[in-house]
């Protein structure tokens, strides 16, 4: 395949300081092999582990005693767990899209960010996967959602979006592991072949599965990787569509909207990219990856965030418009409740985060400003989480029967579980950053080779 | 009598038998007892089957007939008794909740003496020691209202021995004003018994015949019987604060007490019988004119009612006016003593303070809690050398006494009572006493004669000596003694009395009996505490009801606390705006603020009796505190929401809607060979009394979850009664919401494990054992009728440290007890349907009538249940009514539970069209 790069004017995906292919390997592997983790690392490690432990305690307590520990009530029967689930699975979206969609559309700049984005997907989906089971009243029977030969010959109820969801998460998790692993093999071999402790080399060697770098192996790996990427795009769209259908396949105002599946896909991409930007900034700063994660990357990702924000705004507007256009009383009441009901400050905050904040990225200078990037990414992450919880709270607090309108308020346990998953996510990332190369070395080397070729 | 160990339920018993059996094998010291199986099992006595017995329960001293449903020796449900005039086959909240009292772990279980746990013989001996040789001087017996012929006979017997003894009856909610008023108007101490079924026009002046009271079932029945007939009746209501009667009124006005009296003058003047007309607000004047015109229009079919808490001259006025109108009202001599409760208690307390009472026996009364604070009853009790109380539950008075004796529950002993119309019923026990308790009559007998038998049957039999054995058995089985109702007396000529107009007050306090706790005696009942107030929907406490402008005046907002003070007493409690509240009047419910009464009621609310009777009060802001807990937040329906609760004029039909197009076939239930169950609820008859709510709770093993859970927005009642207000005044009503049993149920397709399924009889079933608790069904239920076990509610105790094990003996063995994490909901009492179907199968007959628990309880017959496969069934007929509608019909869920619209008679028949 012909190398295909279209360096834009003044844009470089690697800095000139990175000269040779060996430099790439050095930059990526130095933090793994040569440098000892500093105090900051261990501090973050301990803090995230402690937070994760608090969350794990809260989860254990909830499983032991019941969902009554959460803020859920008879009207708002769903709460944080479902919102957290939708949010986390949405974050996973970006990793898959970067690796697959950008691979297929030959956006080579993805090379230096796809590895940690994929890891992010894996961890986010793992966090997401906790919630559908945790949120059940009787967690021990979660497997009843799977078709297995039970003695009662009972099968899942296929019309339920929750069954689709069960499969969607399962596929997505398995796929993410596989995709991540296939892309990792050449780098594992590189790690195996470097000097270092024997135990670690054996560890890498086991997972490298005898990778020798032969032309045949490269061809097979590349084909498999591309084939998986082709699968990934519909899969990632279906996952988020099905998450959207959890709500849309109902009859509740604010949920029964045909825009939900695409809206959830874009929403997922939106929050996912915000998380990628955040992680990229942290990794670049902490691991000295300035050479291969450049402002150009952030510029590109900021544009994606801006585009997603515009689509999200259109989705919100379509909800208001369709309520007004249809004149459905329940829908109108819901829109009125969004702006004037008990949760209006949250709704306005959500709009500020998701619609207003990313508009800063119209200004090119701000697209590469670290402060603005951090601020907007955090705002988007917060805004998307607010959106998830508001979808649940607003519809279930009101609905159709005014005699049973009830408000929702979360408990300490709810927040502890959310914080716990954040802690666990960060902790998993910290482990990942010390054990595996956070950038795909072989793909970055390819990118560098092409860039230098073009420069020449 | 041997005392059974505490909380002896079936399982404990079996466990004890097993232990005993094991001990007899292995041990050598255990007594060798032989137990016999039922070799010849009585016919029709199947384990788990339900048998029905007629009996009666007291309420405020009056007997009310009930049918006890007993399985395996445990009463598990109480229903109405058709033959009894105060039940007529239906129940009210107090009858429904009485069952829980039997199993309540807070019950007094053994005598408690001055030096700790004691015995009955020691307690009686200590009383007798004080009476030895005397003539009863210094002995006072304080009871509640007594109608029981046996208790009266025992008191008479005691008085023969101790002629100087003093017997005083005290009920904080009494008929003093009415007796005094009628005495003024007719010269006789009489009680009025309105015949609501004969009244075309009712003008209720502070009266709440559809609300709480000993006669509430009979009054509601009579009112609903008239309400069903043409021409449409008209109910007027003038009151300071919204009541059930006000909510059902066709025309309502809120008034202060001075406006109430002035209103009477206006009505009299409009009827040409008065002179002078004091100034009144325009709305009240219009009300008076309209009410007077309607009263005059239907002579002998119009009725004026005055509330129990109104002053005597209001009652006198009503007696006079009803005489003029030839109103359908009977007068009877009081069934219980006609002495004034207020004066008797005041006299007794005075004597106690003076030190002339040295032995005080309090039987089922709680004056320390509910006597006027000026009497200082607790202080007076200190003067008595010996104070003994007997009650079923701990109480404030009990805490002040030297001896606290446990009384049996009415279902544990033989009793008799007379109803409000005098009808006597002989109440048989349904279960042996669970604890070391005695009945009230046994205690009185023991004071007279310590050798008196504790068993109560022969004592009651002795009272009814006139009945031969056949008549006795007949009366016990029927639940009523025939021909014991008193004959109405002629009131004779009535003097014209126009009520004195009290001076206007800046702020007046109205204390009303609680619709759930009455005067406080039901406060320890967890079912009652968790049952929402019909008007405010508050549970586990009550706030002060105020007008919004008054609240603005004090600078408080919803849920803030205020300090209400009068005389030397002050209470701090939260406020809420109540629709229909008169500005310048604040309303408090009695029955809260109990102390030393067990874990359920303690620390909840404030004791309104401390301020009762003070009239004018001062109200001031007192900061914020715990907000009141309620189960409904939106009452007012505006715009599109109003279609949830349509209101029509009499004879007006609701628009018929065409069948909605659907891709899925809409089968017709009429083609079905199986019965097709359906329910129709007439919102025009629902008075929001909540009998159905607790009936459902008792029948279906619905757990009590406690105030904290309800504050978190959780709820377990399968049936809720929503109250809606469609316009400012008048057009409000109640809408009971059980499961709609939708033909196209939104909950079914969203359940991932098929726990929510449909059966061939149109029931939407919930398979508890299949449910994994995703709660998607409730998220998708537009009616919000599903209930989730957020915790293991059935195993949790709201009875504090007391184990709730005894409560589990109340559970219906035919209904699954749901565990944690499971969704549940109304099943149309599927256990009753199944029983009927099994019976039909066994007899090879068509399925007979099935009555759901809510339907059986309903005093107004608002709920109809049956099969719509049968076009002639009662429910099918209702579904053809022009007032018929389905809740949220546009959603296309095709609910099986449907409604008939509330009607408001706006007086169009007079061609005026006034509202």
Describe the structure.
The complex is a heterodimer of chains A (456) and B (915). Chain A is 70% helix and 0% strand. Chain A is mostly helical. Chain A has a single domain, classed as Formate dehydrogenase/DMSO reductase domain (Formate dehydrogenase/DMSO reductase fold, Up-down Bundle), CATH 1.20.1630.10. In chain A, helix 2 crosses helix 14 (412-435) and helix 3 (80-104) packs across helix 8. Chain A is globular and about 70 Å long. Chain B has 4 domains: 112-173 and 338-411 and 442-455, Rossmann fold; 176-332, Dimethylsulfoxide Reductase, domain 2, CATH 3.40.228.10; 508-630, Barwin-like endoglucanases (Beta Barrel); 639-649 and 675-903, Alpha-Beta Plaits, CATH 3.30.70. The longest helix of chain B has 17 residues, at 10-26. Chain B is 26% helix and 18% strand. Classes of the chains: A mainly alpha (456), B alpha/beta (915). At the A-B interface, helix 5 and helix 10 of A face strand 29, helix 23 and strand 33 of B.
List descriptors:
heterodimer; A: about 450 residues; mainly alpha; Formate dehydrogenase/DMSO reductase fold; globular; disordered N terminus; B: about 900 residues; alpha/beta; Rossmann fold; Dimethylsulfoxide Reductase, domain 2; Barwin-like endoglucanases; 4 domains; 5-stranded parallel sheet; 4-stranded parallel sheet; 26 helices; 38 strands; disordered C terminus
């Amino acid at each position: 395949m012909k190398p295909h790069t279209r360096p834009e004017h003044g844009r470089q995906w690697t800095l000139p300081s990175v000269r040779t292919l060996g430099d790439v390997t050095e930059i990526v592997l130095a933090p793994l092999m040569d440098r000892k983790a500093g105090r900051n690392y261990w501090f973050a490690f301990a803090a995230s582990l402690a937070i994760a432990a608090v969350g794990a305690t809260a989860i254990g307590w909830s499983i032991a005693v019941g969902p009554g520990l959460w803020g859920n009530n008879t009207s708002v029967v769903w709460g944080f767990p479902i919102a957290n689930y939708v949010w986390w699975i949405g974050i996973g979206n970006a990793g898959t899209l970067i690796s697959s969609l950008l691979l297929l559309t030959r956006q080579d700049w993805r090379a230096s960010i796809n590895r940690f984005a994929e890891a992010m997907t894996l961890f986010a989906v793992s966090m997401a996967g906790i919630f559908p089971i945790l949120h059940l009243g009787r967690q021990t029977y979660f497997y009843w959602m799977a078709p297995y030969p039970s003695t009662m010959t009972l099968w899942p109820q296929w019309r339920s979006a929750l069954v689709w969801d069960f499969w969607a998460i399962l596929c997505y998790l398995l796929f993410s592991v596989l995709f991540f692993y296939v892309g990792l093999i050449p780098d594992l071999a590189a790690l195996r072949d470097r000097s270092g402790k024997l135990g670690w080399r054996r560890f890498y060697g086991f997972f490298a599965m005898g990778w020798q770098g032969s032309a045949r192996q490269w061809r097979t790996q590349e084909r498999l990787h591309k084939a998986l990427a082709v699968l990934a795009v519909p899969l990632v769209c279906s996952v988020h569509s099905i998450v959207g259908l959890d709500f849309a396949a109902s009859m509740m105002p604010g949920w029964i909207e045909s825009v939900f599946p695409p809206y959830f896909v874009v929403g997922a991409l939106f929050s996912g990219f915000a998380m990628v930007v955040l992680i990229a900034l942290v990794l670049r700063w902490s691991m000295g990856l300035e050479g291969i994660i450049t402002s150009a990357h952030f510029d590109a990702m900021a544009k994606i965030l801006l585009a997603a924000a515009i689509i999200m705004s259109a989705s919100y507007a379509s909800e208001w418009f369709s309520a007004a256009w249809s004149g459905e009383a329940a829908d109108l009441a819901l829109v009125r409740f969004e702006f004037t009901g008990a949760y209006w400050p949250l709704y306005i905050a959500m709009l500020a985060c998701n619609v207003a904040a990313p508009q800063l990225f119209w200004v090119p200078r701000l697209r590469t400003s670290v402060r603005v990037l951090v601020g907007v990414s955090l705002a988007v992450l917060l805004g998307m989480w607010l959106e998830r919880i508001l979808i649940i709270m607003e519809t279930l607090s009101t609905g159709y029967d005014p005699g049973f309108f009830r408000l929702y308020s979360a408990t300490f346990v709810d927040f502890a579980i959310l914080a716990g998953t954040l802690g666990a996510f960060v902790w998993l990332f910290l482990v990942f950053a010390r054990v595996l190369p956070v950038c795909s070395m072989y793909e970055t080397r390819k990118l560098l080779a092409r860039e230098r070729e073009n420069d020449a | 009598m041997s005392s059974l160990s505490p909380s002896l339920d079936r399982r404990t018993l079996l466990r004890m038998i097993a232990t005993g059996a094991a001990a007899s094998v292995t041990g050598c010291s255990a007594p060798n007892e032989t137990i016999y199986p039922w070799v010849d099992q009585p016919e029709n006595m199947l384990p788990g089957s339900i048998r029905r017995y007629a009996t009666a329960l007291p309420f405020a001293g009056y007997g009310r007939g009930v049918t006890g449903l007993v399985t395996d020796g445990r009463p598990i449900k109480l229903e109405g008794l058709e033959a009894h005039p105060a039940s007529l086959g239906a129940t009210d909240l107090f009858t429904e909740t009485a069952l829980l009292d039997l199993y309540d772990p807070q019950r007094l279980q053994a005598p408690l003496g001055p030096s700790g746990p004691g015995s009955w013989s020691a307690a009686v001996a200590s009383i007798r020691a004080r009476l030895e040789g005397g003539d009863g001087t210094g002995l006072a017996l304080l009871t509640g209202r007594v109608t029981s012929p046996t208790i009266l006979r025992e008191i008479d017997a005691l008085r023969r021995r101790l002629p100087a003894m003093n017997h005083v009856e005290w009920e904080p909610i009494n008929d003093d004003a009415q007796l005094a008023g009628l005495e003024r108007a007719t010269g006789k101490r009489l009680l009025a018994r309105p015949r609501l079924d004969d009244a075309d026009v009712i003008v209720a002046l502070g009266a709440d015949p559809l609300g709480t009271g000993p006669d509430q079932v009979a009054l509601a029945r009579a009112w609903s019987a008239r309400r069903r007939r043409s021409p449409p009746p008209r109910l007027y209501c003038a009151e300071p604060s919204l009541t059930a009667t006000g909510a059902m009124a066709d025309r309502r006005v809120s008034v202060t007490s001075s406006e109430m009296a002035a209103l009477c003058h206006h009505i009299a003047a409009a009827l040409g019988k008065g002179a002078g007309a004091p100034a009144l607000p325009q709305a009240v004047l219009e009300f008076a004119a309209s009410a007077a015109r309607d009263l005059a229009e239907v002579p002998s079919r119009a009725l004026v009612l005055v509330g129990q808490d109104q002053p005597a001259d209001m009652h006198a006025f009503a007696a006079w006016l009803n005489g003029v109108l030839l109103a359908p009202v009977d007068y009877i001599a009081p069934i219980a003593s006609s002495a004034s409760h207020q004066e008797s208690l005041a006299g007794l307390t005075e004597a106690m303070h003076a030190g002339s009472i040295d032995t005080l026996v309090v039987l089922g009364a709680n004056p320390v809690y509910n006597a006027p604070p000026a009497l200082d009853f607790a202080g007076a009790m200190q003067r008595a050398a010996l104070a003994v109380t007997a009650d079923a539950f701990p109480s404030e008075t009990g805490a002040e006494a030297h001896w606290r004796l446990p009384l049996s529950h009415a279902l544990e002993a033989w009793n008799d009572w007379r109803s409000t119309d005098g009808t006597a019923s002989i109440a048989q026990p349904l279960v042996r006493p669970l604890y070391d308790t005695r009945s009230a009559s046994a205690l009185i007998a023991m004071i007279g004669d310590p050798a008196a038998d504790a068993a109560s049957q022969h004592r009651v039999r002795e009272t009814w000596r006139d009945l031969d054995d056949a008549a006795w058995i007949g009366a016990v089985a029927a639940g009523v003694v025939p021909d014991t109702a008193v004959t109405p007396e002629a009131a004779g000529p009535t003097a014209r009395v126009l009520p004195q107009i009290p001076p206007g007050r800046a702020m007046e306090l109205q204390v009303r009996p609680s619709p759930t706790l009455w005067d406080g005696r039901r406060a320890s009942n967890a079912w009652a505490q968790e049952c929402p107030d019909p008007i405010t929907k508050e549970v586990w406490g009550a706030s002060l009801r105020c007008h919004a402008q008054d609240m603005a005046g004090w600078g408080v907002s919803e849920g803030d606390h205020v300090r209400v003070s009068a005389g030397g007493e002050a209470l701090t409690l939260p406020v809420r705006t109540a629709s229909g509240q008169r500005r310048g009047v604040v309303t408090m419910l009695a029955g809260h603020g109990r102390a030393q009464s067990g874990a359920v009621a303690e620390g909840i609310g404030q004791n309104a009796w401390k301020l009762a009777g003070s009239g004018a009060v001062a109200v001031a802001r007192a900061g914020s505190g715990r907000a009141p807990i309620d189960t409904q937040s939106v009452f007012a329906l505006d715009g599109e929401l109003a279609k949830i609760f349509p209101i029509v004029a009499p004879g007006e039909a609701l628009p018929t809607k065409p069948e909605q197009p659907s891709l899925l076939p809409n089968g017709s239930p009429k083609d079905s060979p199986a019965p097709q169950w359906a329910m129709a609820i007439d919102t025009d008859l629902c008075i929001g009394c909540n009998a159905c709510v607790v009936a459902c709770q008792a029948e279906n093993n619905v757990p009590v979850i406690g105030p904290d859970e309800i504050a978190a927005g959780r709820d377990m009642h399968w049936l809720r009664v929503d109250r809606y207000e469609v316009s400012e005044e008048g057009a409000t009503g109640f809408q009971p919401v059980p499961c709609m049993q939708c033909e196209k149920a939104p909950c079914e397709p969203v359940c991932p494990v098929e726990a929510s399924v449909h059966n061939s009889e149109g029931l939407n079933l919930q398979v508890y054992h299949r449910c994994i608790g995703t709660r998607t069904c409730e998220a998708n239920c537009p009616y919000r009728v599903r209930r989730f076990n957020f915790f293991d509610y059935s195993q949790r105790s709201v009875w504090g440290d007391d184990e709730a094990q005894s409560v589990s003996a109340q559970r219906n063995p035919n209904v699954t007890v749901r565990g944690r994490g499971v969704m549940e909901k109304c099943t149309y009492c599927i256990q009753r349907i199944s029983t009927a179907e099994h019976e039909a199968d066994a007899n090879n007959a068509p399925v007979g009538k099935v009555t759901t628990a809510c339907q059986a309880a309903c005093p107004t017959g608002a709920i109809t249940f049956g099969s719509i496969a049968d076009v002639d069934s009662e429910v099918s007929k209702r579904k053809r009514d022009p007032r018929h509608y389905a809740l949220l019909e546009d959603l296309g869920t095709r609910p099986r539970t449907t409604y008939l619209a509330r009607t408001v008679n706006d007086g169009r028949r007079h061609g005026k069209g006034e509202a």
